[in-house]
Amino acid sequence: SFVCAIAAESPADDVYRPTHYSGYVNHAYDDIDSSYYFTQYEAMAEANHIGGGRGGAALPPYATDSEVENGSPGADASAEDSNNDEEVFRDCTDDTVAEHHGRCLPEFQFSLVDSEYDETLAFPDSVTILSNVGDKPVLVERKETDDDEEEFDDDENNSVVLRHEIPFTSIYGPSVKFNSFQRKVFIPGREIHVRIVDTERSVTTHLLNPNLYTIELTHGPFKWTIKRRYKHFNSLHQQLSFFRTSLNIPFPSRSHKEKRTTLKATASQMADESTLKDLPAHTKVKQSIPQAGQGQSYNNAGTNGLGSNAVVAMVSPGHSSILAGLTPRRIQRKRKKKKKRKLPRFPNRPESLVTVENLVVRIKQLEDYLYNLLNISLYRSHHETLNFVEVSNVSFVPGLGIKGKEGLIQKRTGSTRPGQAGCNFFGCFQKNCCVRCNYFCSDVVCGTWRSRWFFVKETCFGYIRPTDGSIRAVILFDQGFDVSTGIYQTGMRKGLQVLTYNRHIVLKCWTRRKCKEWMQYLKHTANSYARDFTLPNPHLSYAPMRANTQASWYVDGAQYMSAVADGLEAATEEIYIADWWLSPEIYMKRPALDGDYWRLDKILLRKAEQGVRVFVLLYKEVEMALGINSYYSKSTLAKHENIKVMRHPDHARGGILLWAHHEKIVVIDQTYAFIGGIDLCYGRWDDHHHRLTDLGSISTASVSGSIRRTPSLYFSKDDTDSAFGSRKSSRNAHYDTSNKERSPSPPPEEPSTSIELKTLKPGDRLLIPTMLVASPGDTPNDSITALEGMKLNTPEMERKNVLDRLKDNAMKGARIGKDFVHRLTTAEAAEVYTIETQAVEIQEATVSTACGGQEVNITAASTQILSEFYGQAKYWFGKDYSNFILKDWMNLNCPFVDIIDRTTTPRMPWHDVGLCVVGASARDVARHFIQRWNAMKLEKLRDNTRFPYLMPKSYHQVRLNPHLQQLQARRQQRVTCQLLRSVSAWSCGFIEADHVEQSIHDAYIQTITKAQHYVYIENQFFITMQLGVGVPGPHNNVRNQIGESLFKRIVRAHKERKPFRVFVIMPLLPGFEGDVGGSTGTAVRAITHWNYASISRGRTAILNRLLEAGITEPQNYISFHSLRNHSFLNNMPITELIYVHSKLLIADDRVVICGSANINDRSMIGKRDSEIAALIVDEEFEDGRMNGKKNLSGVFAGRLRKYLFKEHLGECGDSKYGGMAFKISIFIGLLEGDGSRMDVDISDPVCDKFWHGTWRRISTRNTEIYDEVFKCIPTDSVTTFASLRKYQEDPPLAKTDPEKATNRANDIQGHLVNLPLEFLNKEVLTPPGTSREGLIPTSAWT
To answer: 468 near 417, Cβ under 8 Å?
Structure first.
């Protein structure tokens, strides 16, 4: 009677009930004998219709036989044993409320006649899935304590649930073939919502399946649409039905069978559940009664594992006993509720029989079928389902942006060759005699079609090989993008051709509709998300101008490498590094008080072990020409599976012998990008002091960089892989997270020396103020003696003078107190030097420094600095101490063995500039790296699955690193930034050999042309001259127009009678090994020739052209300078040039161009070396002056220019004696001088007072003093090789009278000197034709 009552309630036509239908849910439908109960239903319905009493009305679902007979339904309710006293019953009110967030579909309605639905996908609740065994699921019986294998919680108000997301690095995980059940593509714990949003009906073209449904799917934050017909649903259902049939579904155990009682008891329980649906919302009936209660009761104990004494009374709404059992329903939310599995019911009625009036019902049927199907993990993870909803392992990665469009296609081979693939014989070898014949050859005879999973993301697209799940291509949208379809483009009606600068792809779809959909989506993406890269950009660059970008500058390697080290340490997902030369053993922070913690190879290995993916691109040198040994760098770095290193180009196969990859790139998580002129290699680390010597100091090694310990005075002979004997320390390495400090026992019979410091976090700055030194008996008010910058072999007289001056400075420091250390913001620790004649005791001193918002307390116990420490290098270890003009690098596999004698030879200082950009501009740098990496991967390692293709992150979801933001907050400025580059087919993988990008060159030209007041240039070369007809032969080899632009801009200023200044700073000599006047200096002289030919020698030189243009004094507009420093070594004054390696242009305190590109054709014209640079335009301004008038000065460009001027003019701290005595620089906005020098006003770089009275005067005076004291080379006094030899024969003043030379050198201010334009001007500096250098094409030098 219960069953009949429910059946009578059902609609006669048995159509699908809407979601608000108040029927009950059948959870045991498989156990019902439908034929038996159908007969009973017919008899009961006929009796009710004829028998009167109720007028044929349907029995209420909660009525019993006795109630019908008595005509009083609901008078008394039978008590039934409940399964779970904590169960919360859902009602229709809740379903209605939830429709706004996602329709809560009911479980399928109980119906006896269900021939319209196919329910073969029923899945028993007693079975759970073990999906980690093999490619197919393994089904086992669910235990009583098991939860559902998938529980979704999409309640937006539930803040307790942790939202999961797929990590970005999952795209680099092991690939899984498409037909494997182990594919995990969906977000854990997130439901999939289905909604059919549109229908297109066409009976004429599709008779059997006239309706095309547009289905909107929502999964977490991702939303996408697919288009499907009924036949696609049917095909999916058939595949899943076959899949279910093939499964080995276990039969229920005996205990499970006992839980299932008779159909009558089950139907009664369902009826009582239906009764509760009539109760008010958010209420619960809970009333414990004896088992033998009033009315009819059914012992269903154990149905859900509960005893028979745990029962709940289910009563009708009218019974008064329910009032005492009502409990607020929301209280029950504390207990987690399990969703029961819903049954996908596939509508069997053919689509052609569904009328337009019933289309709404059909839409609901398909929606519910797909919704229920996608929320059963067994079917959701099936590869046919994934193909149906168009998802893969790259669909729901938040870092990649939108889900995009995906699907299976056919791809023709040959996408890396221009034009069409195949022999094309029927096209008469590209003569295209017949379109059909042409494509018949390439498609049928010679073409190979392969199935691929094609995907389109925000700024890229690519395809995956379904057989193994590996990504086979990632192609970036660029300005060469084009997509077309049709027979003339592809030779097929269902073909699709996609073109970019890097790939030409021909695709084939199943239908013309799919082909049209792909074309429309690709065009839509190219014109929306990827429009920054498909539309023309300023300077014809690959990247657009990006406003509101955070950027910071770094002068010299100390600042730059420290910032890079902090960035590497903060990386969480990816690290990209591209270098011309990379030295794995380089120390990124110095002095190396943390042992090997900040050594580059250790940092990368540490991050790789933490799961960060590291990708390194190195230039593969011609070993006969260069000794940078990139193979050693690769083999040293690639010691972990997460570190991938590629070298390029392969010279023999590619035929690239003369050109190089010259970029210097470090990208952190595609969010922070460091670029500039600084390679992470030997010789680059330096600061504004530009020291010439590094004889010895105290260094404190550490174990893993976390616990600081005393350096051992005794190293084993095998301690060769570290400057601190890391092999020895590695045996004792440990990771201690406690705050306990340890002091290892000293060596026997040796003085105890220990430095105990607190544990520091990576990125914290270690500051040891050595100028505040007190004896144990001193009080805070006692005088403090400062020892600063003292070398072991400093002359006694100079030592006394320096000590007197340092004593005065120390007194000032003592009065400053704690404020002193708070003002220290440079990354350098104060120097600690050993003194030959005395030992210094350092009392306990506590240093508090604001770093990352935290105070770091550093306690140094009483430590005696002994002379036994003398001889251990402090800043430059092994081959890092270099002078490459005297001796080039060699034997790089022995990194800690000196190549020059540091006791007799000064090192060559290195001046350079770098940048860091954040956000979208960093994504642009990463995009260049990705394009290069993918091109190299395609060329060299196409089938090597260990080297993955890289994918660009979304530009709409940029997550900044809070720690890095805190470290860089004081340096960052708001600017507009555009990335520029020089690339061509060989360097970036372009298919068309003639395609070139030279946006760096174009930006230089435009910036110089638009400059109003001045142009400041620092560059390693200056090879640029007039280009035109009639210019003598060899000069035609120089094609860049930077010199031409400077010439035109100066001539225009002269005609307008307006001041315009051009500052050019470059090295005194090119960076090649050899004696400029000897047989080994051929390469040095060759570069020198081209520099001078561009500046002052020959008719095409810029100074000569200015003279011809009527400018009698070109020095009023343009001036060429270099840098030099001096110091003491072995009690003798010494000097050495500072190698200018920066590639920098500043214009008007508003515009900055900084990168890796030199001023020569190799870097500028695009077809040769690959380069990258950034164009920075200020958005924030402060007061400034130009030619005596007020003028807004950009915060970024203006402060960078002022810092460089102060460094070069000796105002950046006390650079007197070139490193003998340094004053700790205090950086507040800008580094300020100590006031001991002439007050230099650098605010106005254009006025005559600064141009002639300061800049050129200081440079000329310094040059004269250097020539007088040291007889430097190069010099204007030497014009021939003979005069050079004679000039070198006479000893300089520094050797004949060191004391007088020292007094004279005291007048040198800063590092600025003149470039000697007359040096060897009477000699031919081009290489002889018979020499090795003479056989090299001229383009290699220019």
So the answer is: no
What letter does residue 865 receive in the DSSP assignment? E
1266 CB-contact burial (10 Å; exposed 0-12 / middle 13-18 / buried 19+): buried
Q: How far apart are CA 1181 and CA 46, in angstroms?
A: 91
Cβ partners under 8 Å of residue 1132, min gap 6: 1294, 1295, 1298
Residue 257 makes CB contacts below 8 A (sequence gap 6+) with none
Q: Could you count the other beta carbons within 10 Å of the beta carbon of residue 1237?
A: 15
Identify whether the C-beta of residue 588 lies closer than 8 Å to the C-beta of residue 598.
yes
Q: What is the pLDDT of residues 1266-1317, one digit of tens each?
A: 999 999 999 999 999 999 999 989 899 999 999 999 999 999 999 999 999 9
Which range among 54-63, 584-593, 1197-1206 has the greatest average pLDDT? 1197-1206
Question: What is the Cα–Cα distance from 472 to 462, expressed in whole angstroms?
Answer: 7
Give the Cα separation of 345 and 587 in Å (integer): 66
CA-closest candidate to residue 692, choices 1204, 1135, 1132: 1135
Tell me the residue length of the chain: 1342
Q: State which H helix or E strand residue 712 sits in.
A: none
According to DSSP, residue 622 is labeled: -
pTM: 0.76
Question: What's the CA gap between 895 and 889, in Å, rounded?
Answer: 10
**Cβ–Cβ under 8 Å, residues 1199 and 1209:** no
Sign of the C-alpha dihedral, residues 536, 542, 545, 548? positive
Terminal CA-to-CA distance of the chain, rounded, Å? 100
CB within 8 Å of 717: residues ≥ 6 apart: none
DSSP letters, 271-337, are HHHHHHTTSPTTEEE-----SS-SS-----TTTTS--TT-------TT-GGGGGGEEEGGGGGGS--
Query: Residue 966: how many CA atoms within 13 Å on its side-chain side?
Result: 11
For residues 1132 and 1162, the answer to whether their CB atoms sit within 8 Å is no
Q: What are the CA-CA distances from residue 932 to residues 612, 648, 925, 1162, 1220 (Å)?
A: 20, 10, 11, 18, 45
Distances (CA, A) of 1302 to 261, 675, 794, 1133, 1308: 107, 40, 12, 7, 10
| 282 Cβ neighbours under 8 A, 6+ residues apart | 93, 94, 328, 329, 330
What tokens were used for 1291? 């000893």
Decide: helix, strand or coil at residue 708: strand
In sequence order, the 6+-apart residues with CB closer than 8 A to the CB of 1323 are: 1279, 1280, 1281
pLDDT digits (tens, 9 = 90+) for 208-234: 899 999 999 999 999 999 999 999 999
Instruction: Find residue 1192's DSSP bridge partners.
Output: 1183
